[in-house]
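R.M. (postdoc): so does anyone remember the format we settled on? I'll just put the structure tokens first.
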């Protein structure tokens, strides 16, 4: 709560108490809420236009209708439920986080959408029912969470069939459309943890963004998820409201250019500026995640890849000689952390699908990601069937030193550049091809370059 005085605090407590009295306790307990208990986002757009337009480009708005979710959920999750007793109701968890109003309505298999909705081909028409994804009225009627810290969609909703009180963080708001009440949840990270920490049916943490955040320096500095992901922007929170120092962005940007560029920093450690053809050159590269409040990458780490490409390039930046990372003989899992196109990755369980190329990237580069293994020990993209996670992701602010060694090729002469690029991609192209979806673009996180003269 931004600068709340004792007076306003007690005022709010009274407001709170009043609004809670109207909620039927039994209803809160069984949490059965038909779709019409929530207002559609279009209703809010009239007065909260910029929040609506930003939200409409967010992954929250397409958490159900997104092409990737649609393919994985209908083609793979439902088909896998009879495979093992643990998976009997696997779909329910997906819906709990990706389409919370369908979950609360008890509809675990909503109608499939036939769009190819994604960030680059947005389908931000009127979103109704399950297609509302994670939307305004759902988030702004959350009462509390069942666990401390929350996980696996353990939110408890206060929505009723009336126009509900909207909870938020504003001081003395007044709205002609709805009642308002201040809730501590909106400026704290628990509201995000409820879906951004996920325990799968085999009791494996397959998403742990909140835990990673909790272990970082940021909680101690009073920095929460919202500080970075819902930054203040200009304008008023509502059309007829008062100007305020804060009007928080609702784009919830994450694995896209605006957030990924500069998320980590790299630095080549090499003292020389002159080298000889045939000479063996040793150097290293420091890699540090500088802007994330959690590991990098985080979230859906079974498909997000961050990799370090190192090469000698010419003045135009064209690669002349690729320098692979040195294998780490001390780490038995090193093979998971070096890019490879071996056909060893399964879109579903290894007994339910055929393998595809694991990374679909140039080989031999250091890769920061998670390897999810199924109960046959095979690499899988199916987080709900994962029994083991092996990972080497970058902790926030940690400096990782990668070692390289190469022999200067005889054919090179004159000026060359030692180039290191850290890249990010949301999913391997092999997986996108398997689902028949658009390839996700490669984003350059950071680069470093050294001019070398070959004598
Ligand atoms: C994922 C949950 C979530 C969704 C979805 C969401 N909000 Fe919010 N909203 C928040 C949080 C959290 C805050 C407080 C942010 C802060 O100030 O740090 C907030 C703040 C607000 C505020 C108070 C003013 C401000 O900027 O702090 C308004 C008004 C608001 N949201 C309206 C909307 C509307 C309209 C939509 C849909 C277009 C929407 N919200 C969607 C979580 C959500
Ligand atoms: C007729 C206009 C109107 C409509 C429609 C409307 N709001 Fe608001 N809302 C306002 C105004 C005005 C405020 C107060 C703004 C201020 O004081 O700065 C407000 C405040 C809020 C707040 C802040 C509450 C707090 O205590 O911090 C939230 C959250 C919110 N609205 C959510 C919604 C949602 C969700 C919808 C759609 C279901 C919606 N509003 C529809 C006008 C509207
Ligand atoms: C009801 C569950 C739920 C809540 C609450 C929630 N999220 Fe999300 N969030 C999701 C899901 C599901 C996705 C992925 C949607 C997709 O791409 O299919 C997501 C996506 C995101 C992304 C985009 C990631 C990317 O690059 O694809 C960001 C950033 C994010 N959430 C931040 C937040 C923050 C910050 C909060 C708290 C203010 C929050 N979320 C609350 C479920 C939730
Ligand atoms: C200090 C700023 C900061 C804080 C605090 C922070 N994040 Fe992030 N987050 C980032 C940056 C920068 C990125 C882009 C790089 C990346 O993908 O990790 C990001 C990315 C993400 C992504 C997308 C990951 C992907 O690649 O798909 C999600 C989801 C996310 N954050 C959720 C959260 C949640 C939930 C919290 C709170 C528990 C949180 N973040 C706290 C800065 C922050
Ligand atoms: C506890 C909440 C939770 C559960 C349960 C959950 N997800 Fe998610 N899912 C998320 C969040 C949060 C993200 C965003 C992480 C990120 O972007 O890095 C996400 C991301 C995704 C994405 C990536 C979308 C993209 O565009 O890259 C897919 C696909 C997906 N989930 C499918 C599923 C399926 C299928 C299930 C059920 C087996 C499921 N999820 C269960 C919270 C959940």
């Amino acid at each position: 709560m931004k600068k709340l005085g004792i007076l306003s605090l007690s005022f709010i407590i009274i407001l709170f108490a009043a609004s809670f009295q109207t909620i039927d306790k039994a209803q809160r307990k069984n949490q059965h809420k038909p779709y019409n208990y929530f207002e559609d986002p279009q209703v809010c757009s009239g007065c909260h236009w910029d929040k609506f337009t930003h939200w409409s480009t967010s992954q929250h708005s397409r958490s159900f209708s997104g092409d990737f979710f649609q393919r994985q959920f209908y083609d793979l999750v439902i088909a896998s439920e009879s495979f093992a007793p643990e998976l009997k109701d696997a779909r329910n968890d997906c819906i709990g986080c990706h389409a919370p109003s369908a979950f609360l309505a008890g509809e675990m298999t909503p109608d499939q959408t036939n769009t190819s909705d994604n960030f680059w081909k947005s389908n931000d028409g009127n979103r109704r029912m399950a297609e509302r994804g994670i939307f305004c009225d759902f988030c702004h009627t959350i009462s509390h969470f069942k666990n401390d810290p929350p996980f696996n969609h353990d939110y408890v909703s206060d929505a009723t069939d009336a126009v509900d009180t909207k909870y938020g963080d504003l001081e003395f708001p007044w709205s002609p459309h709805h009642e308002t009440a201040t809730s501590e949840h909106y400026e704290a990270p628990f509201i995000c943890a409820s879906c951004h920490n996920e325990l799968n049916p085999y009791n494996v943490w397959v998403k742990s963004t909140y835990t990673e955040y909790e272990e970082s320096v940021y909680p101690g500095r009073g920095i929460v998820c919202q500080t970075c992901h819902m930054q203040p922007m200009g304008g008023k929170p509502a059309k007829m409201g008062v100007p305020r120092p804060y009007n928080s962005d609702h784009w919830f940007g994450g694995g896209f250019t605006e957030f990924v560029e500069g998320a980590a920093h790299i630095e080549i450690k090499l003292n020389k500026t002159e080298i000889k053809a045939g000479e063996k050159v040793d150097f290293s590269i420091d890699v540090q995640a500088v802007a994330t409040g959690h590991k990098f990458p985080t979230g859906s780490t079974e498909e997000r890849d961050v990799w370090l490409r190192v090469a000698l390039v010419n003045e135009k930046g064209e690669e002349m000689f690729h320098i692979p990372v040195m294998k780490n003989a001390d780490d038995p899992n090193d093979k998971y952390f070096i890019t490879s196109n071996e056909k060893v990755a399964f879109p579903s369980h290894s007994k339910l699908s055929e393998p595809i190329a694991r990374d679909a990237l140039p080989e031999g580069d250091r890769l920061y990601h998670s390897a999810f293994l199924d109960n046959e020990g095979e690499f899988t993209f199916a987080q709900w069937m994962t029994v083991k996670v092996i990972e080497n992701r970058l902790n926030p602010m940690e400096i990782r030193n990668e070692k390289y060694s190469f022999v200067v090729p005889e054919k090179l002469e004159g000026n060359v550049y030692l180039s290191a690029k850290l890249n990010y991609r949301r999913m391997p192209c092999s997986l996108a091809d398997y689902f028949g979806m658009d390839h996700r673009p490669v984003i350059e996180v950071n680069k470093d370059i050294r001019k070398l003269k070959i004598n």
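R.M.: ...and that's the designed sequence above, right after the tokens. Also worth knowing: The two ends are 64 Å apart (CA to CA). Confidence is low (pLDDT under 50) at residues 1-24.
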